[in-house]
Design goal:
CATH architecture: Alpha-Beta Barrel
Largest sheet: 8 strands, parallel
Order of helices and strands: EHEHEHEHEHHEHEHEHHHHH
Number of strands: 8
CATH superfamily: Aldolase class I
Shape: globular
Radius of gyration: 18 Å
């Protein structure tokens, strides 16, 4: 298996919807071009930020082919492929067309709260079935279960095609443990914009970013500077975003970043239930920051 391609600034790509609730492909194309021209290193498609749970199977299939064609190999594509029914994930891996997809992002099984052994066995089966590299995704705030450093490291050592983990546990000590003890062919990617800078200083290789949807140029500069060890300048950019990190998540994701993108004139501010747009007070604060940034 090739080494991990998912380094630097990855974008957790949103799904723009038109006013009538259908997928807005013209807005999506504009967004993809904006990301690539502004320094995105890879795109993460059909993840949480894409509102994937609200997309029909036909919409998911259409989006996959559309994005593969649109990106046309210019940057790697990491696609969400996970769930809490292991056999269903394996079936998807075995029956889907993976042409143009460079890897899968597979979330820890949610809702049914498996043990650490259950998590290991789930990912072991996925690794054995996957025709493309696997990036683990630990996000206990959404799944109800934390994958420990020991389980992550066990998987990293046992399967060459498990190439990285998107870590969004918020537990810096756990992430540092993984970075310190991981094999050379395994990477840690930040799953949280707000801790990307400190995590890179510890040895992470990049981020799968929400804020990057709206500000890819600025955020990619911060990531690149940090990866080069130019911490002082990178930290200045990180601090510039501190208030925005909070604002974009206070009413849930991707409500905040969709509000910001709509203020920038790039998309309609439309989400699918059960998600709703940000509150007016949040929107006003986001509008003010967008104006300050000159958009």
């Amino acid at each position: 298996m090739a080494n991990n391609k998912f380094r630097g600034l990855g974008i957790a790509l949103i799904t723009p919807f038109a006013k009538d609730g259908t997928i807005d492909l013209a807005a999506l194309d504009r967004l993809v071009e904006y990301q690539i021209k502004s320094g995105a290193d890879f795109l993460c498609i059909m993840g949480t930020t894409a509102e994937t749970p609200t997309l029909s199977s036909d919409e998911k299939s259409m989006l996959r082919y559309h994005l593969v064609e649109r990106v046309s190999g210019r940057v790697p594509l990491l696609m969400g492929c996970g769930g809490n029914n292991t056999s269903a994930v394996v079936q998807e891996l075995k029956t889907s067309d993976w042409k143009g997809i460079d890897g899968i992002l597979s979330v820890c099984p949610y809702y049914n709260k498996p043990s650490q052994e259950g998590l290991y066995q789930h990912y072991a089966v996925i690794a054995q079935a996957s025709p493309v590299p696997v990036v683990l995704y630990n996000v206990p705030g959404r799944t109800g279960v934390n994958m420990t450093a020991d389980t992550t490291l066990r998987l990293a050592r046992d399967f060459d095609n498990i190439v990285a983990i998107k870590e969004a546990s918020g537990n810096i000590a756990q992430m540092d443990d993984i970075i310190k003890n991981k094999p050379a062919n395994f990477d840690v990617i930040s799953g949280d914009d707000g801790i990307t800078f400190p995590l890179i200083t510890l040895g992470a290789v990049g981020v799968i970013s929400v804020i990057g949807n709206a500000l890819p140029s600025e955020f990619s500069r911060m990531v690149r500077l940090a990866l080069k060890g130019e911490y002082s300048t990178s930290l200045t950019i990180h601090h510039k975003f501190t208030e925005l990190f909070k604002l974009l998540f206070v009413d849930g994701n991707p409500a905040g970043v969709k509000a910001m993108l709509s203020e920038m004139g790039m998309i309609e501010n439309v989400l699918r239930l059960p998600l709703v747009p940000t509150r007016l007070t949040t929107m006003e604060k986001i509008s003010s920051i967008v104006r300050e940034l000159g958009y």
